[in-house]
Amino acid sequence: MLVSISGVRLVDAPILLLVCFHKALRAELVELHGITSLSVEIESPARALILDLLARFRFLKLAYKYHCAAEDEIVFESLDLREENVVCAYSLEHRSIDELFVSVFRIINRLMEEDEILPQTLRELDICTDTIEKSICRHMLKEEEQVFPLLMQRFSFKEQASLVWQFICSVPIMLLEELLPWMTSYLPKEEQADVILCIKEVVPTEKLIQKVVMSWLDKRNEPSFRVLHRRDTVNLYSISNEPISLKELPKVYTFWKSLYGEDCSSEGKIYHTDNAKDHPIDGLRLWHTSIKKDLNEILDELHEIRSSMVFSTLASVSCQLKFIADVLIFNSAALENVFFSVLSEVASDCLSFTYQRFPSNSQIEGLFRILQDINAQNEICLPKLAEKLCLQLEYFMTGLAKHFAFQESEVFTLIRKHCNLELQQRLLYTSLHMMPLGLLKFVITWLSTHLTEEETKAFLCSIKPAGSEADISFASLLHEWVHIGYSGKTSLEKFRRELQEMFKNRSSFLSEQIENTGFSLDTSVQPCKRHEHGQVSSNSPDKSISDTSFHKTKEKYNTLYSSEINLQIHFPEALKELFPLSKFLIEKRDVGSSLNLPFKPIDHIIFFHKALKKELEYFVLVSAEIAENFGLFTEFHKRFHLVTFLYKIHSDTEDEIAFPALVAKGNLLNISDSYTMDHKLEGEYFNDISTLLDEISELQFEISTCVDATMDWRMLKYRQMCIKLHGMCKTICSTLGNHVNREETDLWPLFMECFSYEEQEKIIGIILGRTTAETLQHMIPWLMTSLSRGEKDDLMSLWRKIARNTMFDEWLSEWWEGLNKKHDLAEVTQKPNISQLGTADPLEIVANYLTTGGHGEGFTYLEVGPTGYDLEPHGNGILDFKAKKTDGDTNNYQCSECAQLHEMNDKQSTEKVVNVRDQVRKPGKLLPVNHKEHFLSMSQEDLEAAIRRVSRDLTLNPQKKAYILQTLLTSRWIVNQQKPPSDATLTSNEVEIPGKFSSYRDELKLSYGCKHYKRNCKLFAACCKQLFTCRYCHDDDVSDHSMDRKSTTKMMCMKCLEIQPLAQKCSSLSCDGLSMAKYFCNICKLYDDDREIYHCPYCNLCRVGKGLGVEYFHCMNCNACLSKSLVIHVCREKCFESNCPICHEDIFTSILPVKALPCGHTMHSTCFQVFILNSFGIWCYLMFCCQEYTNTHYTCPICSKSLGDMQVYFGMLDVLLAEEKVPDEHYGQTQGSLPSIGFTTNVLTVALTTPDFFDWGQIPGVIVSLKLHNS
């Protein structure tokens, strides 16, 4: 159980400092969205407002990127070691949210380039801002609900503080000194005080470090920092590639000039000297010399490793290269954003070159890829990797030498010429702020070990304390670090060991991994200990450490920084190449392509995602036109409610079926929690849009009926609401699209790995088993319009294969008008199925065979190949069976109805969805009369001759031959069954129709109906041309046959006594749309006004209950609707498609309660009753009182297994037998016997029941009831 972060103070959980950043980000996003909304209202904002938006968005992007990078590389990496499967989803979400900023900057650039600011562009900016706000806030809310409670549970106070300190040490100082006061400025005073106390405990106790960090926090009191500093900080530390014109941005030069009131150019203060040592900018040569020296030493060491084949020092070399690469990355950033920014202002006429960044993306990718392989420590590959590293380093050093030569000859010369000494010093000082605090400490220490005494003095002079108190404290800290490195306290060898330890254990925070990596200048200084709510006390130097969690080592915080954060910020493309994501994409499969992904059952969910994304794109497109086109709204409203309904079902099936199956199968706890929270938040957003649509609908109705002076106001409000709708549609399209992409990237490859093909089929079968007939009627046309031809065939084949043991094909045929004729959905199985032959009229098939000698065009039946049959419409309703191609073209089959669905427009598709439930196959369509007359006129001799002819035909395979022979033998019966009901009685003399009167359910004649059903109509029985209230009333009155309800086409309203086609409401004007019943099924021809009933598409029957997915699910193997509590049950294939072994009545269509025995067989509850006596608190015995069977038997009549737990009963028999005295003549004699067959089980209630009998399923060892309701 996760704890909530609400009510927890920051001083008790330092990791909540990141939550403070969440609060600041939320507040900033709200402000930005407010500004963009205001800009839309004023329609022509000043350009200064656009510039301010630009600066704030750039700062927000920078702050958010570092926040996300720190979470990915520090917090999440540490959490993943202790709580698996949590952080991957959030890291993927960071990448998707980061891409949202691109559209914002694109729109702002367009606004700045336009001569006149267009309202449409401002609305786009407002919508994009709203999308970013919703996406980031939702992401942070999920983190606060799952990630941060886990961090508080899994990490101690000191470990949390260590993580926070790593974050602080990994952010560039220039950004950090603005980020901290920006964050605290959005907090209330109480939380600001907690932040100060938290920072004091997180930061090491060394005085200068504490003073520097606290000076950054104090900047929140400076009135200019949120206006001037933020904008120029972003310009100084720009990582964005947005093409912003330089004239639109504040310059570093003008910033300093306005801030200090000085002229920084060389013209302001004449200073000419030929002594290079007097120019501070030449101090950068010291960096160049040290870097080249170390790289040469590393290259020599690599050559020695290759020659000696001793790779023990290769890890140390790898760490040194990473460190130097980090130094070069920030050096390049400083040159580009600090030095070149000033030169572009003061020496623009002299710039005859453009800056080329070094290292480039390809160089970083090549170097880090080899280092990544070395870290894998594959000993077999180490010699080859060492050789590749040597070649890569030589190539790297060649480019570096050219880069340094260019700087020293071109850049430094211009700076010496156009910048005075003070400006040069400020540039150097600012360039150090480009580095993170953790990296800077290592860099200063490393550089000072390479300097001579004279060089050290010159370097210290270039960073002498000046300016504000914060600058003085920071400069003093740098001086201390220089003295430590130069004094020899940190030798080069010791520095390299610390560097290797830091890279090795950067993600760890336990004491054995952080020893000797502390920030403390004095090794005897101890960090603070936390006592009561923020009270801090320092340990005395001589006090021994006894904290077992620190393994008796000296308490120190890490001085660590994340190299991966630098890659995320400066080289995101290279990082993606180094750590690619395993994307799972469903691409359009072309016919015959061998490169296509094979279809898997789990693609059922991916296809739903595809249809969902297409529908969301439609909403974005149409919502932009609704304001000007009233006619689009009604269609839009219907489709959105349909998608909302289907999305709710889809998200529930993922949360309740797919995700739990993945967690259980792969032991992947927590892996789906983030996506489950997405479903909840997206469901709420769908509801918000639905509420807005309802309001627009009401307003549209008011406009259509309004004739007063408020018309203009209503139209204005209508347009505003339509604009809001468009923005919400774009937001849900973006957020839900990203969510679906993350699911397909993160989770669905795991389904492929963890589940076999059959297991995936079972999962989809469970999902379909919870899907109601009404949902399928909406979902099938909706899905088909979004899928390609091959995808339609694959999906329908999958569904029909999964439901092969059920009546799904029958339901599909009856629901979808003309399915049997057109055969518009792909076939189910790869094996021949004789039931498929029956989809065409058997008499016509046989007649065509007899007239064409088996070789006519109407019926071609080839041997089945490895890919099965292709079924295509052919002739007058006759099917053509053609063998599939064997060249891998599995999608050659053309599905006529699927093609029709694919081509119909969106409006027709929606009408299909709305009206599809009313479509059933029209009965009574017959063959031409000549076929019937042919079979009726055949004599016995003719029939025998036809049978002999078929038997002797060697071209027929056994299956086809058996089919034709069976049809010939039953041809007369088939013709009689196909005779249409005569309606002559209805049209000529309706008074003569028996039963044409009202019937009542009660003696007082208050409600229409019969003892079986409450309804307001009677059914016209086509078989006997009479009216009956229900089919059971017909069967009770007529003894020679049963009523075929599916041939029923007419009914009689019992109020007006008018006979009319079947419908839910009376068509007579006098009845004014009187409902015949609350429930009406057009397939079963069932009316009921009393109970909750649903139609199961897999039983193809109406059942009593609230429906699939609510109370029941359909087991595709058992072919039965079961209670949701019976997900785990004894499963036998088609176990309910049998007769009761006692009374021999069909169980599948029975209305009596049915018992599921422990062995898996079934029988009627009335044939088997169990009573339990519990006189003394223990099981005594089982009494079977059924007259038919169980009064003499206790075993299953089919398999002879025990019907219950008989151990107690057998024990009592043993006791009774032991008490019997054995006659003397038989004493000692024994007789062999077979062991008894019995077992103990706990069988739960099989559903599809009405609650009119006791639920014995709660009592162990007792068999309980199943009750089917077949109307």
TrEMBL record:
| Alphabetic keyword roster | Metal-binding, Zinc, Zinc-finger
Occurrences of domain LITAF (ranges): 1122-1208
Q: Does the keyword ATP-binding apply?
A: no
Q: Where is the CHY-type domain?
A: 1003-1073
Tell me if Transferase is a UniProt keyword of this record.
no
Using the record's annotation, list all stretches that form the RING-type domain: 1140-1200
Q: Which residues form the CTCHY-type domain?
A: 1076-1139
Gene Ontology BP terms: protein ubiquitination; ubiquitin-dependent protein catabolic process
The name this protein goes by in its record: Zinc finger protein
- Organism listed in the record: Kingdonia uniflora
Q: What is the lineage of its organism?
A: Eukaryota, Viridiplantae, Streptophyta, Embryophyta, Tracheophyta
